[in-house]
Design goal:
The protein has 393 residues and is of the alpha+beta class. The chain contains 13 helices and 16 strands. Bound molecules: iron/sulfur cluster (2 copies).
Length: 393
Amino acid sequence: MSERRTTAVLDRTGLDALVQVLRARGRTVIGPTVRDGAVVLADLATAEELPFGWGTEVEAGRYRLVPRADGAAFAHTTGPQSWKAFLHPEREKVWDADRTADGRLSVAEAPRARPSYAFLGVRPCDLRAVAIQDRVLAGGRYQDRGYRERRAGAFLIAAECTEPGATCFCVSMGSGPGADAGFDLALTELVDETGHRFHVRAGSDAGDELLAEVPHRPAEPETQAAARDAVDAARERMGRAMPPVDLRTLLGDSLEADRWDDVAARCLTCGNCTMVCPTCFCTTTEEITDLTGDHAERWQRWDSCFDLDFSYLHGGPVRASARSRYRQWLTHKLSTWYEQFGSSGCVGCGRCITWCPVGIDITEEASALHDELAARLRRHDQEGENGRKESEP
Ligand code: SF4
Ligand code: SF4
């Protein structure tokens, strides 16, 4: 284990060399690129495919690409995908079953795709999300083997946030905008009078070793200070914040809140929020047979707690109303997740706000629940006070 990690500066050529070294080592490099009017995550052949000169404008239920004059590559917010699309794919075959010539049944585990991934441009909130999925899918008694194997070989290059979006609230969830753990390399992009460059910190032996193969110069104190300042400035420009209360207790005390009816009247139960969320992990399985009956397959695919079938027991779904399904999602995410996995299930990435077709905002809902609970407690105190006065002689 290295005592001292490398800090360095790369220019655009150095960034491309980084991609080429990773590819030469047989890695599939996944990073942000512009496609179909959005910044999406895709296989990159070269760093030139990064979204240089593109930023994003986001709001509740709204996402737009906007050109940037400074040519920055990492000045966009999180897009509709997260890294779970690669580590925990949306659909994956589990096994094949075939009837053999002698009429017996042969069942074979399906081969799992195990690319050697390098993720370029992982936001600090998404680093936290990967750590949460590690705990859920590879940290307990029941592990997802495909996830564990893909994750074990993955090389993570973080991109610290210097341009938070209007739906971001990582500061109030303690997950950004700076990267402090869980990466092999962390980049901070700087575009100023000194030029366009990337301050790089190694976070692992693998990061140190890779950086040694890439043309770079040592990080001078001015660049180190500029990188710190850019991240500190981003901290002050968060678009949103969770209410500064114990969310775990708040949700636990709000199970009968009237606010659930309000949000249920707006929620389409489409499940978009669970699909874009980088920590949502639920899956279901389905079996498919061919028409001859000689071949069957089992597939695992993402599921959503907004789907009626998700809680279907004999006779019908346990959570039949939109109220109960939204409440389940929010209560799990912000409260009961602690009991299961020891942390919040939300990292403040803002995706569920941006990609909700009706603009439902998790921070606004938490604030409304807090206000309702506070009003209920005030009423309760007042009634107690009145009762005491009436009983006074
Ligand atoms: S909160 Fe929004 S994204 Fe989530 S299920 Fe409801 S309408 Fe769809
Ligand atoms: S709940 Fe929303 S803000 Fe929180 S991690 Fe999921 S998508 Fe991001």
